[in-house]
Specification:
Shape: globular
Largest sheet: 9 strands, mixed
Helix content: 25-40%
Number of strands: 15
Number of helices: 15
Bound molecules: 6-O-phosphono-beta-D-glucopyranose
Strand order of the largest sheet: 14-13-12-11-7-10-9-8-15
Structural class: alpha/beta
Distance between the termini: 27 Å
């Protein structure tokens, strides 16, 4: 079974960088699934554009191999694949020269939805945007899709925003943060704003603290050169973790509409307080049985870049004053596990004599793997022996609750690309949000650079450096175990 069909209009989608890694791993296999679910109207076209001298047949062959490798179980649908490939075209293009632009201009139609996916280095964004206009390919309704990294600090992000704004209106720009396309991330909004139960408790009267963990088992091998210039703060916190933080902390928007949601997220980012360096722990993984150390992976024996970071953040507003948000993310950790946990306060008073345990309600939202939620509640332990209380999870693992359908849940990329075609910007970052996020992270990065802060070495396959555990222990709290 494939996902529910929501009709979209006929479109031309041009993928600059159409032969690249992202296009082959994510974008085209995702579009293939959408084709199978009937969301690619007849006549719609996907046009790969890149430097390689390929013809349509060569490109179709490349993409059919990519789908065989990355397309999952749908890739065995050979009839479907044939139909999909017929909708692919290819143009060899020189982003910085004139080659290929006339061919592209002839292909792209003006009377259907037009989207241009810039799956290329940000240094080419300006050239592409300009040539799309000088060659009269883009029009005032065209949409462009850009990927992170969206700058490496406030200044470069501003420059990128200005480059794009010179040619496109903000309503035409779709900045992808693929975490916003994840099923459970959207569920976070459904849980918060679709239930009566949680909203009255979602504040500093009832919440003790919130934890956000995004742990990965992979290292940086293969992308060490890029990663060593960014580190976990730029690669994960400034975008993915901050987006999660926004969704968990924002005020209810007036409606589920792009600017209403993004206005509320922006307010959260602006309310983030500066962090004292004692509340930031940076780490670097050591060599382990499964792989080399960070420094070997990054091929930089003197690297001070962090592959792990943990921080205690505060949001200065009425709802969250005094509630710490502990966030952490790292590579080569003990399990791949992303989870948001809301820990509610202790009961002020117990009526059950002899019960000295600390009972707390804990809501955890698991983004990956085993997407789902559980709510820890306190009940009477069944059987004789009086009122003995135990804490049990009310577990809603989506795979159990929803059966088959969960397997067919769309990948983040395909969902987001279809939103581009539908013209829905709700799950995309607005320019001011990106800038506000850098405005908050820049001084933190500058702080540790000025101090020549050396990251703490942690064992590969662990939960990160001990100092990260101490970050919470000092406050009388502890991290949730990282379980895959
Ligand atoms: C990317 C980061 O944005 O997200 C990678 O650049 C990271 O370093 C990846 O591994 C994690 O994404 P996911 O979807 O696997 O959690």
């Amino acid at each position: 079974m494939v996902s529910r069909v929501i009709p979209v209009e006929e479109f031309d989608l041009v993928i600059f960088g159409g032969t690249g890694d992202l296009a082959r791993r994510k974008i085209l296999p995702g579009l293939f699934r959408r084709f199978l679910s009937g969301q690619m109207p007849a006549g719609s076209r996907i046009i790969g554009a890149a430097r390689s001298e390929l013809d349509n047949a060569g490109y179709r062959k490349m993409i059919s191999e990519a789908i065989a490798e990355f397309g999952g179980k749908e890739s065995s649908n050979t009839k479907g694949l044939e139909g999909f490939l017929q909708q692919l075209e290819y143009v060899a293009i020189d982003a910085r020269g004139e080659g290929g632009w006339r061919d592209l201009a002839q292909l792209v139609r003006d009377d259907v939805v037009q989207a241009f996916y810039f799956s290329v280095a940000p240094s080419l964004f300006g050239d592409l945007a300009e040539r799309l206009h000088t060659n009269k390919i883009a029009n005032k309704n065209s949409r462009i899709v850009v990927e992170k990294p969206f700058g490496r600090d406030l200044e470069s992000a501003r420059a990128l925003n200005e480059t794009l704004a010179a040619h496109f209106h903000e309503r035409q720009i779709y900045r992808i943060d693929h975490y916003l396309g994840k099923e459970t991330v959207q569920n976070l909004m459904a849980v918060r704003f679709g239930n009566m139960l949680f909203e009255p408790l979602w504040n500093n009267h009832y919440v003790d603290h919130i934890q956000i963990t995004v742990a990965e088992t992979v290292g940086v091998g293969g992308r060490g050169a890029y990663y060593d210039k960014s580190g976990a703060m730029r690669d994960m916190v400034q975008n993915h973790l901050m987006q999660l933080l926004c969704l968990i902390a924002m005020e209810p928007p007036g409606q589920f509409e792009a600017d209403a949601v993004r206005d509320e997220k922006l307010k959260v980012i602006r309310a983030l307080q500066p962090i004292d360096h004692h509340h930031i722990v940076r780490g670097q993984y050591d060599a382990g049985p499964d792989g080399p150390s960070y420094r070997e992976d990054a091929e930089n024996e003197r690297s001070f870049t962090e592959s792990f970071i943990a921080m205690r953040c505060h949001i200065a507003n009425w709802r969250w004053a005094g509630v710490p948000f502990y966030i952490r993310t790292g590579k080569r950790m003990k399990a791949r596990s992303s989870e948001i946990t809301v820990v509610f306060k202790d009961l002020g008073h117990t009526i059950f004599e002899g019960d000295e345990a600390r009972h707390r309600n804990i809501l955890s939202i698991r983004l990956q793997p085993n997407e789902g939620m559980d709510l820890q509640v306190t009940i009477k332990e069944p059987g004789p022996g009086g009122m003995r209380l135990i804490d049990v999870p009310l577990d809603m693992t989506f795979a159990d609750a929803l059966g088959d359908t969960v397997e067919d849940v769309a990948d983040a990329y395909e969902r987001l690309i279809m939103d581009v075609i539908r013209g829905n910007q709700t799950l995309f970052m607005r320019g001011d949000e990106v800038e506000a996020a850098w405005r908050w992270t820049d001084p933190l990065i500058e702080g540790w650079e000025a101090r020549n802060d050396v990251p703490k070495i942690y064992d590969a396959g662990s939960s990160g450096p001990d100092d990260a555990l101490m970050l919470m222990h000092r406050d009388g709290r502890k991290w949730r175990d990282i379980k895959g």
